[in-house]
Write a structure and sequence with these properties.
It is built from five helices and six strands; from the N terminus they run ααββαβαβββα. The radius of gyration is 15 Å and the shape is globular. 37% of the residues lie in helices and 25% in strands. The mean pLDDT is 90. The protein has one domain: GAF domain (Beta-Lactamase). A six-stranded antiparallel beta sheet has the order 3-2-1-6-5-4, with helices on both faces. It has 161 residues and is an alpha+beta fold.
C-alpha cells in the first residue's frame, strides 16, 4: 500500500530531520524528535561499551532519578534494552504495568509507562547501542513502527558509534 510503512513520505522527512540533528546537534535533540513523532514522553539512548559489554546510558527523558541505578549500566540479555541488543531485534511490551513475560525488569514499572519498545542500533550487523521509547497507555507497536524504529536506531548507531 503506497504511503504506508517505511516508504511513507512523512517517515522520509523524519529520517532527514534525524540525520540533520544527529550531525549538527546532540543525540538528545534527535531523541526528543523521535519521542515527539511517536507521542512518547519517555525515551533513552544506551551506547554499547565494547570494553565491558555493558549498555551505558547516554541520554534519557522522562525517566525518574530513582531508577537511574538500574538503567545506567545494563548487561546484554537483561531487561528490554539488554534483550534487544542480544536478540538484535525490537523488544516490545504492550503494558509494562501488567507484563508477565519477564522481558521488562521490575524497575520499568516505576516509570509509570505502559507501551514500550527497545530497538537495537545495528550498524553492518554490529550492535552499537539501544534506543528505547515508552508511552503512558497500553500500546502495540506495529510492524511499520518497528521497521521505522530500526531505521532510526541504525542512524543513531552510525552517528554515535
Amino acid at each position: 500500500m503506497s504511503g504506508t510503512g517505511i516508504d511513507n513520505p512523512l517517515h522520509a522527512r523524519l529520517m532527514a530531520e534525524l540525520r540533520a540533528l544527529l550531525t549538527s546537534a546532540s543525540p538528545a535533540a534527535a531523541l526528543d524528535r523521535v519521542m515527539q513523532h511517536f507521542a512518547c514522553p519517555v525515551g533513552s539512548i544506551h551506547r554499547l561499551d565494547p570494553a565491558t559489554g555493558l549498555l551505558l546510558l547516554l541520554e534519557r527523558r522522562g525517566i525518574p532519578d530513582a531508577i537511574l541505578p538500574a538503567i545506567e549500566r545494563i548487561p546484554i540479555g537483561k531487561g528490554m534494552a539488554g534483550l534487544a541488543a542480544e536478540r538484535r531485534e525490537p523488544v516490545t511490551v504492550c503494558n509494562l504495568q501488567t507484563d508477565q513475560s519477564g522481558q521488562a525488569r521490575p524497575g520499568a514499572r516505576a516509570t509509570g509507562m505502559e507501551g514500550a519498545i527497545a530497538v537495537p542500533m545495528l550498524v553492518k550487523g554490529v550492535v552499537k547501542g539501544v534506543l528505547g521509547i515508552a508511552m503512558p497507555t497500553a500500546h502495540e507497536f506495529s510492524t511499520d513502527d518497528q521497521a521505522l524504529l530500526m531505521r532510526i536506531a541504525a542512524e543513531f548507531g552510525e552517528r554515535l558509534g
